[in-house]
């Protein structure tokens, strides 16, 4: 068995993302084929349990301590800690090396990173209760596809009429954690500027230090603006990160050389006119179609002839969507009455506001991450 496992591991290590995904999918099918069906069912309902113990492990700093520990025995354990660690070991998140001795793994070290811990906390604390409310919400609305930002599972979950980001403004701890989660998503990953041909778009005659080069609309704490300026220090023009006041205040505490931060509500007219790029990453997927139209219309009003809107969002195939993307889609449904969109759904949104496709760059095929460049018709 070890021999087979070793061979498969070696195969996956050198494989392309696509081949690696098919190896993982084949192994998932194999697991279901050979495990006891009762265990498969228990793994389905037990998803909550695994998430809960990981969440406790983060609070107790198990993963951070293990990441730094020279030996597993550096952790001083109390009996209830052992129960948590035994559960984590059962899920192969940590390794049980002896009675009451647990060692870190590559996976537990990954969980120890700020971005992963924030992702787990946000998805457990905010999305978890929201998903609990989804079945009752859908039953009540007759299983219609939610498309009204003011009528979602989220309202019942948090007993509020506020939109998700309005609620987060009133819950700063949740917002701060969400922003760390968002910023962490770009760590050690291919990002849009690794693949998008910025230099093909930026004619030196039309760029100037006075003009805005890139406005990152809903840019969170400015990680993409920072990456952009670092990669293109010599293209003249302002690089501006816009977001809600809370995120902008958080962003200003981070190194911000070469970029500017501006509080701006994207449901109001865009104050930066004639920018080369208006860039939106993971923004439109948060909103149903009518709200996307409002956001895009304000940008269109600010555009000049050579301006481009860059939508950095997943583009789903119409069939065979990987589970990670459907997970994101259901999360959008519960939180925002919105969705991850297919090519056809995106085109309908662009046509509705008079935008025309310039180019589409799939910069991360694994995650279906795509930049779509659009100009006015
Ligand atoms: C899913 S996050 C994406 C953040 C960032 N673009 C990224 O990819 O990491 C959506 C962003 O939209 C911002 N946002 C929500 N409502 C907004 C509004 N009305 N005006 C401006 N920004 C808003 C949020 O604060 C958040 O930073």
From TrEMBL:
One of its GO terms (molecular function) is O-methyltransferase activity. Coiled coil: none annotated. Keywords: Methyltransferase, S-adenosyl-L-methionine, Transferase. Residues 152-354 form the O-methyltransferase C-terminal domain. SUPFAM superfamilies: S-adenosyl-L-methionine-dependent methyltransferases. One of its GO terms (biological process) is methylation. This is S-adenosyl-L-methionine-dependent methyltransferase. It comes from Polyplosphaeria fusca.
